[in-house]
Amino acid sequence: MSTPTNHRRAWLIKAPLGLVLLSFGLCLVVEAGLYKAGGAATLDWVVYGTVALTVFNSGLCLLVDAGRHRGLMG
């Protein structure tokens, strides 16, 4: 059942977690760029960058979903 209490709980969990994952993913993306600029093997920085973008996009999805819950909370 969808109640304001359930939406509040989801918002309180997803918003901070989304911010942390988004920030961490951004740091990882920058780190992958530094690997590339430093002359690392292509496979290394591509795999690192792919994981970084996955973390970044996961954080973004959680943050958007938290916003949805915030709107439904009332």
Total of DSSP H or I helical runs spanning 4+ residues:
2
Mean pLDDT: 95
Assess the beta-strand content as a share of residues: under 5%
Helix content: over 70%
The helix-and-strand class reads mainly alpha
Give the overall shape, derived from the CA principal axes.
rod-shaped
Extended strand count: 0
Order of helices and strands: HH
Reported for the largest beta sheet, the result is:
none
Report the radius of gyration as a whole number of Å.
16 Å
Distance between the termini: 15 Å
Unreliable spans: none
Descriptive notes:
The chain is an all-alpha fold. The chain is built from 2 helices and no strands. The radius of gyration is 16 Å and the shape is rod-shaped. The relative contact order is 0.24.
Helices, strands, pairings?
Elements (H helix, E strand, L loop, with lengths): L3 H34 L4 H32 L1
